[in-house]
Automatic annotation (TrEMBL):
GO terms for molecular function: nucleotide binding; oxidoreductase activity. PANTHER family: BINDING ROSSMANN FOLD OXIDOREDUCTASE, PUTATIVE (AFU_ORTHOLOGUE AFUA_4G10190)-RELATED, NAD(P)-BINDING ROSSMANN-FOLD SUPERFAMILY PROTEIN-RELATED. This is Gfo/Idh/MocA-like oxidoreductase N-terminal domain-containing protein. GO terms for cellular component: cytoplasm. InterPro entries: Gfo/Idh/MocA-like_OxRdtase_N, NAD(P)-bd_dom_sf.
Amino acid sequence: MSKKILNVAVIGCGEVAQIAHIPNLIVASDMFKITALCDISKQSLELCSKRFGIPNTFTSVTDLLASPISIDLVFILTADQFHAEHIIQCANAGKHIMIEKPMAQTLKEYDLVEQARIKNNVVIFVGYMRRYSLALKRLKDEIKGKKIKYVRVRDIIGNNKYFTSQSGQHQKYYQDHPSSSSEELKKRIKLNLVENSGEESSVSEKDQKRNEHSWSLLHSLGSHDLSLMRDILGMPEKCLFSSRSNDQDDKSWWWNMAIDEVAVFDAHVEVYTNDSRVKIQYDTPYVKGLPIKLTIQKQLPNGDFSEEIVRPTYVDPYTLELPLLYDAIVNGKDYKTKPLDAKNDTILVKMIMDALVE
């Protein structure tokens, strides 16, 4: 009996599509076939269509969904502020969805997406790929049943351009977006901040920009860390304290999360128990084949100090999550990164922002 191949449409043909998702879907040809591309940038569409041999292209999600092209699954890789809208559109058209994080921007959006998932009986799989690394499972096995004394979560990474430029995918960046879409994006960023924080009009323009930047950093880059922390420890009850510095460039640096100008990707979680320290170290997902390592430090019964480094696989988490997405759709298997799971990250971001001390 031949294996079912899922027909895939990719909405959003920018950086992550060119470097990770489209190449990975093409390699996973035993499970997926890309049948259409969609982007508001005609230049991005033309590039991806020619480079990856995908002739069916659209500049509108509405036109894509109205076409007779066979589509089982949609990869949504658009700007964060349009995620929920596009998810609901695709779910109402009966399509399964793989959505890049963050899934949505406000608590209301998460609830509307969950309603669409239930109403249309579709899979909405949130792409928290770090949670599907094999090293994470090993870490959880190692600390199981132990009393956790301290956890350090860190994400100090070099500017994305340092890693994307070395991805070997020769990606291109285009700016031929309709002016109306850029204005709509700015409008949504402001409205989402007001909805999430209750920010009043009396806030100064400078503070508003700082808050927008902080929310964006926590909600996009930071969602990897927040989601990973929840996977290991469960949902926190509250945030006691958070702070940020105010440098001359008006950028927000969080206690353990920032983007700098050094080409080092330092993203890790380290869990301290009474008799061990277990650390999972992530490298950039934009260079294929870099290992995710687990370091286990222990004091042995004879008094020796032991350090073990475990590398479960060179297969990247983007690739590891594809069979799980496939099984969720084709075989009805359960998966952990659902809409209401992702909603907890927005709740956490609000906790952090509410606890902010300048």
